[in-house]
Design a protein that fits this description.
This protein is α+β, with helices and mostly antiparallel strands and 106 residues long. The chain has three helices and five strands, in the order E-E-E-E-E-H-H-H. It has a three-stranded antiparallel β-sheet with strand order 2-3-4, with no helix packed on it. A two-stranded antiparallel sheet has the order 1-5. The radius of gyration is 26 Å and the shape is elongated. The relative contact order is 0.14.
Length: 106
């Protein structure tokens, strides 16, 4: 459930967000609020919207992204301060074939 606002009132004179003293979020998507600490919890008014569940996300990239060559060299330098069992991970990070600085100079 998605609420467009957590304001407990709608018109002028009704409570505003700054009047809230407590919010309680339930796993089922319902939000309860208190205006005073000693009040009973009340359900937040307003129409909630159903959220469409996403079963799978599309791939963001079509191929593996490569880091700049300079960054790869920096990671190779930092390997000296890391445990040796992590070195193969940093060796296998894909990087660009040419330096970006050198390409800008040309």
């Amino acid at each position: 459930m998605i609420y467009s606002s957590i304001r407990p009132g709608r018109s002028s004179g009704d409570p505003t967000v700054t009047d809230l003293r407590m919010l309680q979020y339930e796993p089922n998507g319902i939000i309860y609020y208190k205006l005073n600490f000693y009040d009973e919890l009340r359900e937040l008014p307003g129409r909630s919207k159903k959220v469409q569940s996403i079963s799978s996300f599309p791939n963001l990239y079509t191929s593996e992204t490569k880091i700049p060559l300079e960054k790869w060299y920096d990671l190779q330098f930092l390997k000296g301060m890391m445990p040796s069992n992590t070195h193969s991970f940093y060796d296998n990070i894909p990087c660009e074939n040419e330096s970006r600085k050198m390409l800008k100079r040309q």
